[in-house]
Amino acid sequence: MKSKIAQLISPPKKEKLHEAIVAQIKTLIHTKKLGVGDRLPSERELAQLFSVSRVVVRESLRSLEQSGLIEVRPGSSGGAFITYNVHKPLFDAAYDLFNKGNLSLSYFFEARRAIECFAVKLAAEKATAEDLQTLKNINKKLLQDIDDKAKLRENNSNFHAAVAKMSGNPLLLLMTQSLLQILDVVYPKSKQSDDYVKSTYDRHEGIIKAMEERSPERCEELMRIDVEYTSKLRFRGDDQG
Q1: Candidate CATH numbers 1.10.10.10, 3.30.70.920, 3.50.30.80, 1.20.1250.20; the one for domain 14-82
Q2: What tens digit of pLDDT does each residue of 41-56 get?
């Protein structure tokens, strides 16, 4: 009996084999027939299902991984898993320019300030009680995980991504996620002192309170303060203090 995925795919045309395979898997992801965390069949199984060589399958998986749609994990429990990190291509392009010296961190902060300040205004207008509780729960974890630097980064990024998601604009979320990931890569761990974390928590609490008061302008002001506070720290590869 054919598996669920086997029933949904068909052998591609020969002229562009890997592109046809990528297109089919993308369609399954975008139509939610495959979801985040789902594991694709092995290379050998995919080669049989698509009637192509494993070389073609490998090229297809590489393309999907570069698109941020899958993650290939090594080991006996590894494989290709759906991730849907669609901001990855934007991150890769911007980070390459940064490494080549064509972009400085000041550009990233200018973009972040423009995007997040606009997003938080939309979020303030649309936020539900459930949205606000989600923000509160994320913000509490900043203090709960104060000794775990990896989680601090994750929790801070989750807060800003949640605000962008609340805006209701997928493009704002996409750009916010890309900028946050870039800054996470270049941000020096040693700079995140306990005082910095506590002040971040307080700034986030102010944003949440302004959302509860349905004050988009106040939210914009507080988000600008939050982003500018972070931009004053010294970053690797930038002489800005």
Answers
A1: 1.10.10.10
A2: 999 999 999 999 999 9
pTM, to two decimals: 0.73
When pLDDT is averaged across residues 109-132 and rounded to a whole number, the result is: 96
In the chain, what's the furthest Cα-to-Cα distance? 63
Range 6-10 average pLDDT: 73
The residues, any chain, with a CB within 8 Å of residue 59's CB and separated by 6 or more, are 18
Helix axes 105-126, 170-186, angle to 10 degrees: 140
> In this structure, how many other beta carbons lie within 10 angstroms of the beta carbon of residue 54?
13
Q: Which amino acid is at 141?
A: K
CATH 1.10.10.10 domain position(s) in the chain: 14-82
What amino acid is encoded at 110 in this protein?
E
Three-state DSSP class for 71? strand
Segments of the chain assigned to CATH 1.20.120.530: 88-231
Q: Output the CATH code of domain 88-231.
A: 1.20.120.530
Q: How far apart are CA 75 and CA 5, in angstroms?
A: 23
Q: Which two three-digit tokens encode residue 123?
A: 């979020």
Give the pLDDT confidence of 82-114 residue by residue, as tens digits: 988 878 888 888 888 888 888 888 898 899 999
